Description:
Elements: H1 2-10, H2 16-32, H3 40-64, H4 70-92, H5 100-115, H6 119-131, H7 151-155, H8 160-166, H9 169-176, H10 180-193, H11 201-222, H12 225-247, E1 261-263, H13 265-271, E2 275-276, H14 280-285, H15 292-297, H16 306-319, E3 326-327, H17 329-344, H18 353-356, E4 368-370
Helix pairs in contact: 3-4, 4-5, 4-12, 5-11, 6-10, 9-17, 10-11, 10-12, 11-12
Amino acid sequence: MSAIRATVARTPGAGRSRGVSEFTALADEIRQRGLLRRRYGYYWAKLVLLPLALAATVAAFVWIGDTWWQLLTAAVLAVIFTQIAFLGHDAAHRQIFSSGRWNDWTSLVLGDLLVGMSYGWWQHKHTRHHANPNKDGSDPDIDVPVIAVTPEQRSRSHSRLVIGLRARQGWFFFPILLLEGISLHASGIRRVLSPEPLRRRWVELAFLLLRVGGLTALVFVVLSPSIAFVFLAVQLGLFGFYMGVSFAPNHKGMPLVPRDVTFDFLRRQVMMSRDIRGNRMLDIAMGGLNYQIEHHLFPSMPRPHLRQAAPIIAEYCRLHGVPYTQVGLFASYATVVRYINRVGLGERDVFTCPLVEGRSHAVPLTGARPG
């Protein structure tokens, strides 16, 4: 992690108080522009239309019957489930309602009952990620069991086969995302059944059983066993892949933060995140996750305001010497693959590539200090 440490050494006197005041000034500007106000019309439309689309697709599935054409229905369901998961993500971040209780129950219904993902598991994991994105030992999103995303993770493997595979692991990253759907369901169920404290455990358990068990039973009632197994594989595979390719560009391949380095809030959230350039269709396809910097700075900002906030925050970061990374979608995927391959090859200093050679609008790192 020499790139980050060298930056720390080059920036004496980068104190927390300065960073706090810088973010406060930015937050005041964002608030004055009305970008934190609720967007009830936008969200109520989604809360009505997405479940209706799901109900219509399930009805069409039953009507079509036992045919291989149902694999198209599986693909449609994967897209709808992902879009509902994005909406649940917004509710969990308190973007939809001013009431925490309303947001919680919306997340439970959308996440557990409709998608089959545990809200309690996701909230615990995602909160830790937002607190310390890309920080070694703190961010659970960089602790990936199959792919090594840090040199330390690579060094744990001594098998010659594993070492050989990890030398090309970047190319396996996207195919592995086909298994992400199963992983998301399994992680949620495991969390609900674990002895760890969990609010509304029985509600989550009931919702997950209804969703996972109910959909599986319906599939085998309508379809013959061979088609049913393939249908579930396609639906789960595409759902996991869609979720994965939406979240992967956000932080993978951005600098990692050593355990003993601390950044002020503004730099901690901006420097380790990446925005994806695109039009409004991309905004819809990625559920607003393409504005990752804005989302990390203002997690409760309603999704439709992220596009408006992006140029304001980009200019503010430029004026204050804070790196603001923005690339195209496919350029971000290329960076992810290149970065993960570098880790797999055993390179120790893999943390500069997004800022030095990543075709991003970034300026030198500032504002870090040893923790």
